[in-house]
Fold:
Amino acid sequence: MSSDSRLTSILFNKCPRCHEGDFFVTKSAFSRHFDQMHDHCPHCGTNFMPEPGFYWASMFVSYAFFTIWTLLTFFIVVIGLKIDLNYYLVGLVPTLIILTPYFFRMARRTWLTIFIKPLPNPTPGKLS
Structure:
């Protein structure tokens, strides 16, 4: 996988345009201020707050991440490992609570990445 792909910027807290600057202030999703974002990219200056209320729709992206997680773990644990559904549900709730900050951050990065075009990657050896 290329280090300048959109998927890399979503997974590793990077700017969707330059793939260099950090999207959130803290590196970890499991810190006290996990929701604090930079207003602009520290590296290229891309605006991370295009308009008021822009990130409301990222709730739907977050919902999709929770749904994928739930279905994936259901098929692995209940169908694949043949563990009782009640045990699965008891274990699922804490994982959903623990993953909330991570999915929150990933949903915001995904939502902005949909609307930001990455910078073109110059070919090595060619003059611009």
Summary: The CA atoms of residues 76 and 82 lie 9 Å apart.
